[in-house]
Amino acid sequence: KQEVTQIPAALSVPEGENLVLNCSFTDSAIYNLQWFRQDPGKGLTSLLLIQSSQREQTSGRLNASLDKSSGRSTLYIAASQPGDSATYLCAVPYGGSQGNLIFGKGTKLSVKP
Amino acid sequence: KAGVTQTPRYLIKTRGQQVTLSCSPISGHRSVSWYQQTPGQGLQFLFEYFSETQRNKGNFPGRFSGRQFSNSRSEMNVSTLELGDSALYLCASSLVGQIQGNTIYFGEGSWLTVV
Fold it and tell me: By the 8 A CB rule, do A107 and A94 touch?
């Protein structure tokens, strides 16, 4: 059974800090891993998709890495801004070709001005 | 291009009633997945439809059902509502499937409150 854990559950930082969000998964046989952002009361927005053959993906101030062998992914946010405040979730596929995504419970990030 | 549209956005129902939620995926996307999100359980998979066929189903009781139409629009239905069904129901759209390595686009969700 695939389990996805995100630590910490909540994080508060001052504006301008670089920060790392962690995601771990128990079954390393994954095709890909996605990071999403969710604003309060809203749906999820895909941030980065890392294929199993890749080690990292970058988009602007975001960089996500994937280490399948250790069952870990990290999302690095550079020079954080108040607009980055949101809940960040990671998700991995499970169950073969007709499986579904398993989501972590997220890290709630608050960036203080 | 237009995003994923979910209707209604908010609704309140009474225990025992039934509810139907609708999702219009991004044009050209053939896969629609549904998730339930609650503070305690997080996001839990309900089902996925691809080209009008249910491809996969999560561990929810039979009161939860869905379907997909030929234009890829999808509906989910919950019958005999219980208080525990209060949640944010999210629809996700993708070209070929939620796990096939393509970007997934979520709607804003339908907030269901059961009283």
Answer: no
Give me the pLDDT at residue A52, please: 86
Q: For A88-104, what is the mean pLDDT?
A: 86
Mean pLDDT of chain B: 94
Residue in chain B closest to A34 (alpha carbons) equals B103
Q: Looking at the partner chain, which of B45, B105, B109 has a beta carbon nearest the beta carbon of A101?
A: B45
Structure tokens, A99: 């499986």
| pLDDT tens, position by position, A6-61 | 999 999 999 999 999 999 999 888 888 999 999 998 899 999 999 888 889 999 99
Residues of A in contact with B104 (CB under 8 A): 34, 46, 101
**Are B42 and A99 a contacting pair at CB < 8 A?**
no
Q: What is the rounded distance in angstroms from the CA atom of residue A65 to the CA atom of residue B38? A: 28
Residues of A whose CB is below 8 A from B110: none
Pairing of strands A10-14, A107-112: parallel
Tokens representing residue B32 in the block: 């629609």
Mean pLDDT along residues A97-102: 80
**Residue B65 neighbours by CB distance under 10 Å:** 16
Q: Which one, of B29, B8, B3, lies nearest residue B19 by Cα?
A: B8
Cross-chain residue pair A89–B107, CB shorter than 8 Å: no
